[in-house]
Amino acid sequence: TEGSTQPYDRASVNGPGPYFNFTAPLKDDTGRSIANLPCWRPPWAKLVAVNANTGDVAWEVPLGLTEALPDGKQRTGSSGSAGPSVTAGGLVFVGATSDRRLRAFDMKTGQELWSARLQGQVNANPMIYRGRSGRQFVAAVATDTLVAFALP
To answer: Is the pLDDT of residue 118 over 90?
Structure first.
């Protein structure tokens, strides 16, 4: 909270004030800052499936990319502020990442099946609906644009 004397107060995303920052700059070869990354080991965001009958974690995967990192090290998870939506056919759709992607996962295994890069960040749960033709769609609002994709 504001005015806290605790050095590691996590009452807010940025700690108790401007003097505490739990990120560090990532710099390119010229010394220019290209990203601020968390100061703890990734993954920084995960999609987690829990077995509702047992409470056990069924699977978990890093959710999102940090594209400022080199290839092969980008799968760190990148947090956002929305939850997933699940279809009766076993697809999990989520767009809650700062890398501006909408993704589909297999509900049983957590395997990423599909992703699409969008013009903006998705900050709400994806919507799943059936159109007049009977075809099923997934839609999401990416910043100020509504996008929809037909399911096979």
So the answer is: yes
| SS3 label, residue 72 | coil
Among 20, 145, 18, residue whose Cα is nearest residue 9 = 20
Model-level pTM?
0.81
User: For residue 31, what are its two tokens?
Assistant: 């010394």
Locate 45 and state its tokens: 């965001």
Rg (CA), the chain: 18
Maximum CA extent, the chain: 61
pLDDT category of residue 132 using cuts at 50, 70 and 90: very high
CA-wise closest residue to 40 among 65, 77, 70: 77
